[in-house]
Design a protein that fits this description.
With about 190 residues, this protein is α+β, with helices and mostly antiparallel strands. The strands form two sheets. Strands 4-8-7-6-5 form a five-stranded antiparallel β-sheet, with helices on one face.
Amino acid sequence: MPARPRSEGTRDEGFTISAEPAAQSSFEPTRFSLALPDALVKGLLKVAGVLAVGMAGLMITSRWLDTNRADFPSDPDSPDSPLPACSAAPNCVRVTWLYPQDTTAVRTAVLGALQQTSAASYAGADNRIEAVYNAFVFQDDVTVVIEPHNGGSAVHLRSSSRVGYSDFGVNGRRVSALKAALDAALR
């Protein structure tokens, strides 16, 4: 079979590949062009359009799905929290709850609540517990400090996303689940 000249197009599995030789006096290399079938181009444009609309919708609705810190007030007469304050981004909750039990009983209940709410890992010494939760590919940090307060215990909890502005309400739901588990164990 005789070899085809480079200027002719070749057809391979629905794609047309052609090469144009550079002009004799030009320093430009040979230009290649790739012609895709119309159905493939239309399909790719539809996918790109759906992705663009989906991302725009996600950005708009993320404002409504953020964690609202006002929904998580600390108990009245709570001591000041030793945990860092949350930034202005709505991806963090810091709260203090009071329980009548001693710190040992509360620490046991906190460890059980972390396990019940599917913490990926947790560890702690004394009355400070650090936990990590996996949310899809993102990791969130939960810190719990338990200290004696008026014959009972104060539980200081902070749940925050490591990256990003919005948490889509994940930290708020996690704090609610931890509170429910603690209340069930201690009240």
